Amino acid sequence: MSPARVFAPKEHPCMRRPSGFAKAALFLALFPLGARADAPATSVAAAESFVAVKRGDLKLDVKCDGWFEAVAPIEVRLRPRAYQGELKIVSIAPQGVAVKKGDVILKLDTDEIERQVAAAGNELKTATAALAKAEADVKLGEEADKIAMTVQTQAEKAAADAVEWWEKVDGPHMLKQFERQVKFARINVEDQTDELDQLKKMYKSEDLTNATADIVVKRAVRALEIANESLSLAQQQAEKNKATQYETSRQAVANALAQQKNATESLKAAQAQAKVQREAALFSARQAHQAAQRRLENLQEDLSSMTVAAYSDGVVLYGKFSQGNWQGNNVTYSPRDKVQPEQVVLTLVEPGKVRLIAPVPEDKIARVAVGQTAVVTPRALPELATNGKVTAVPAAPTIGGEPAKFEVVITPDKTDPRFLPGYRASITIDIDDATGVLAIDSKAISGGKVMVKAGDKVEEREIVTGRSNGEQVEVIR
Predict the structure, then answer these.
(1) d(CA 465, CA 473)
(2) What count of other Cβ atoms lies within 10 Å of the Cβ of residue 466?
(3) pLDDT tens, 386-411?
(4) Distance CA 440, CA 189 (A)
(5) Per-state percent for the chain, helix, strand, coil, to nearest 5
(6) Phi, psi of 129 (to 5 degrees)
(7) Is the distance from CB of 347 to CB of 321 less than 8 angstroms?
(8) C-alpha to C-alpha distance for 254 and 163, rounded to whole angstroms
(9) Fewer CB within 10 Å, N or C, the chain?
(10) Residue 407 has what pLDDT?
(11) 344 near 75, Cβ under 8 Å?
(12) Rounded distance, CA 384 to CA 181, Å?
């Protein structure tokens, strides 16, 4: 025989008559606490009391104790966006008081936050001025770069023109000048030679004293020697000038052009870097301006949140309501008391707008479905018992523990303004009963087996179980 299986479906799809219990009246042993399922049948039977088993109805209602909670509670929670400072109470509505929409239910001291708002306003002005300057720097920088690049381009062109002019005019003129100096020296030598020759011829034909002739010829000879020396010096100077002065002059204009080209590239790199720096400064200025503007706006919002008015008519309750319990509702606030950010100081609830929460254990949740009817009996005022409907069943447990529990939502047909969040109620969720089934006491089952007595014979049998209400278990076979 296959091992016993225990389960509890809402509706079993195929109910079969249990073959092991065909007789109208059988007897099952109720196992006492501590009895062993593997004990011999005779010893177990001797120790147990037997009960008759027969077909009947199995009530599958789910019962539990639940609580009322507000349908749309308004939690007053302080969440400063930018304010950093103490949150001191100036005034607060008393616990349990009824208020009208627009009534001030909480007012906090604003001296410090007003100072921070003023400081943030000044920071925004400074950031605005810095942004304007950064924007102007970008515009003026671009214009200055264009002018500087134009000037540098002109300087480079002038240097290139100087090289071209030197190669076409200045350089050739310099060489011709050197050649002219040599040429003049050579002409002078030729002139002195001719003059000396003429003197010599003249002195031969004319009747001049030897002394006079000697003087004149000697003078011409010396002039020729000097002319020859001058020619030699001019030739040497010309060679030197070609090798030094000419090359120096040529290299000067070439270097000037190279310097201007280098200056152009350097200016391009410097302008590119300066442009990035200006744009980065502008980006930072915009970010700082946005941050200052956002801080001022956030502080202004924080300032407005320091006075809280009721969003609707309702009742003021201190603290926060969660899973059937109030947290922080046992405090007594007075002026100058401090509250903390993110703390739920109070909750505004509308009387009569409540629903029920039924914490259904995990072993019963499968039988609960949206649309089922429930009977709600308030513990404080049981005479106000009413029906309701299951309107939400969570997909996962919402309350830990063993067993875990599911917070099933029940909407009552009628409510009373006296029922505030936290009031308790007994809840019975109406599940369709299982009729004509063989049901046994859950205490009679041990390890998926029961002790069966038919006449004088006692034997142990494995069973397959079905639905259960916690006390009675359906036997499938």
Answers:
(1) 7
(2) 23
(3) 999 999 999 999 998 888 999 999 99
(4) 154
(5) 45, 25, 30
(6) -65, -40
(7) yes
(8) 6
(9) N
(10) 96
(11) yes
(12) 136
- Read off φ and ψ for residue 394, nearest 5 degrees: -65, 150
Show Cβ contacts of residue 177 under 8 Å, excluding neighbours closer than 6 positions: none
Which distant-in-sequence residues (6+ apart) come within 8 Å of 261 by Cβ? 156, 159
- Give the per-residue pLDDT at 139: 96
452 touches 24 (CB < 8 A): no
How far is 187 from 154, CA to CA, in rounded Å? 46
State the Cα–Cα distance between residues 340 and 38, nearest whole angstrom.
62
Closest CA to 415 of 354, 372, 348: 354
One-letter amino acid identity for 270? A
Buried b (16+ CB within 10 A) or exposed e, 230-244: bbeebeeebeebeee
Residue that the structure tokens 């205490």 belong to? 443
Q: Residue 476: helix, strand or coil by DSSP?
A: coil
Instruction: Give the integer Cα–Cα distance in Å for 82 and 84.
Output: 6
- CA distances 372 to 10, 407, 408, 467, Å, are 12, 15, 11, 18
Tell me which residue has tokens 């259904």: 360
Place of tokens 């009895």: 35
Query: Cα separation of 459 and 42, whole Å?
Result: 8
Backbone angles phi, psi at 390, to 5 degrees: -75, 120
Instruction: Give the integer Cα–Cα distance in Å for 263 and 253.
Output: 15
pTM attached to this predicted model? 0.62
Residue 197 pLDDT:
81
Beta strands 98-99; 314-318: pairing state: antiparallel
**Strand 434-441 versus strand 424-429 pairing type:** unpaired
First to last CA, the chain: 11
Collect the ranges in the chain with pLDDT lower than 70: 1-49, 52, 205-213, 433-434, 436, 469-470
Closest by CA position to 93, among listed 417, 419, 466, 346: 346
Give domain limits for the chain: 1-58+435-477, 114-304
Closest CA to 356 of 387, 312, 318: 387
Q: Are 469 and 430 in contact (CB under 8 A)?
A: no
